[in-house]
Amino acid sequence: MEYLLIEIGIFVITFLFHKFGKIKLFENKLQMFALYASVLIFGAAWDNFAVWKGHWFYPGKGTLGIFLGYIPLEDYIFIIAVTYTIIVGYEYYKKYIK
Predict the structure, then answer these.
(1) 88 CB burial (10 A radius; 0-12, 13-18, 19+)
(2) pLDDT tens profile 79-92
(3) Which end of the chain, N or C, is surrounded by fewer C-beta atoms within 10 Å?
């Protein structure tokens, strides 16, 4: 559960920067779908492979216990949240800091 709470916190902070900063992330919905789909497919494949090979594991405590493949649901959310945070951070930097 802690993993999910951290992700929610990251998402809320990023969302506030996105909305109040009036940052445009994509030109169209296809662009958004293509990015998130590719990140999710490759990220999930890599994480599942790494857990399967024993590079790391999820002990169950700290997660909801819902696994899709070898990784918990929270890891899929993490892949999307990190991508969103990086894009918002980059666009915020371009608009307000650079």
Answers:
(1) buried
(2) 999 999 999 999 99
(3) C
Domain extents for the chain? 2-97
Residues 6+ apart with CB under 8 A from 73: 63, 64, 66, 67
d(CA 70, CA 55): 12
- Per the CB < 8 A criterion, the answer to whether 4 and 66 are in contact is no
How many residues does this entry show for the chain?
98
Question: Which of 80, 96, 92 shows the shortest CA–CA distance to 11?
Answer: 80
For the chain, the maximum distance between any two Cα atoms, rounded to a whole number of angstroms, is 43
Query: Can you give 14-64 as a three-state secondary structure string?
Result: HHHHHHHCCCCCCCCHHHHHHHHHHHHHHHHHHHHHHHHCCCCCCCCCCCC
Amino acid at residue number 34? A
